[in-house]
Design brief:
InterPro entries: ARM-like, ARM-type_fold, Armadillo, ARMC7. The protein is an all-alpha fold. It is built from 12 helices and no strands. Helix 4 packs across helix 5. The relative contact order is 0.10.
Length: 182
């Protein structure tokens, strides 16, 4: 007998919760992140609290779990209900923390997620000075994908005075978020 969509997603969530295998957790989280791409699954994923699961995984030491979790959030946050949930769950801070990852996919997903989460209400948080400074650094990266995305963030989501303030601070400090490895 074929499982319905909700039952299948429930089985994945249950497997994630009960398995002790790091590899199995990674595989299940990757599957959930892929299912988060389809708007048909949004309601089911909310019902199964997968947004909370993704948010919880952002602070894990396992970089692969973080990569899949931020990828899942990135897929989900174009939906207005999901966006509001992530913002209300204080999800911006752990997403910003993903900018310091050495994993390129994690950083790209984090930048994209911040873009998708930016609203007039969330803008002070998503474009806070440390984020703008980080985007300035990323815009100088030899990695074209990252530099283009960061430049787009600076142009479309930040005001010129924000960028200038971050630029002036960046000139006076050697401290910064490291660029991800290629």
């Amino acid at each position: 007998m074929e499982l319905g969509r909700l039952e299948y997603l429930q089985a994945l969530v249950t497997e994630f919760q009960v398995t002790d295998s790091a590899e199995a957790k990674e595989q299940v989280l990757a599957n959930l992140a892929n299912f988060a791409y389809d708007p048909k699954n949004y309601e089911y994923l909310r019902q199964l609290q997968v947004l909370d699961l993704f948010l919880d995984m952002l602070t894990e030491d396992n970089e692969t779990l973080v990569e899949f979790a931020i990828g899942g959030l990135c897929n989900l946050c174009l939906d207005k209900t999901n966006k509001e949930y992530i913002l209300e769950a204080n999800g911006v801070e752990p997403i910003i923390n993903c900018l310091s990852s050495s994993n390129e996919e994690t950083v790209v997903s984090a930048v994209t997620t911040l873009m998708f989460l930016t609203t007039p209400q969330s803008r002070p948080q998503t474009t806070a000075l440390p984020v703008v400074e980080c985007m300035l650094r990323f815009s100088l990266s030899a990695n074209r994908r990252l530099s283009n995305l960061a430049s787009l963030f600076l142009e479309d989501y930040c005001s010129p005075p924000q960028v200038e303030e971050a630029r002036s601070l960046s000139k006076h400090t050697a401290v910064g978020i490291p660029l991800p490895k290629d």
